[in-house]
């Protein structure tokens, strides 16, 4: 809930939300970690898949372009050895992999 100018709530709109809402894109997916920046958000599934959504102007969603996303989208550039284990967001996105690699 809260501000949603760039779709960072993952609800498919840019309307602010005064109450918590379920993110439909994660139906059937178990999420183990979420990190929220001011304008973008990222999540890691229990399987190690990384998702990004919200403000993508500088490529900070890891999706290969600079477009905003209104719903979570899986980062497809990761391979098995790069499964995400932790994520950190401020103005950039950083994640560590299960084999202790560090990606920015």
UniProtKB/TrEMBL annotation:
PROSITE patterns in alphabetical order: RCC1_2 (PS00626), RCC1_3 (PS50012)
Protein origin, superkingdom: Eukaryota
Keyword annotations: Repeat
Record-linked InterPro entries: RCC1/BLIP-II (IPR009091), Reg_chr_condens (IPR000408), Ub_ligase/GEF_domain (IPR051210)
Keyword Repeat: yes
Placement of RCC repeats on the sequence: 1-47, 48-104
Protein name: Ultraviolet-B receptor UVR8-like
Species whose genome carries this gene: Gossypium armourianum
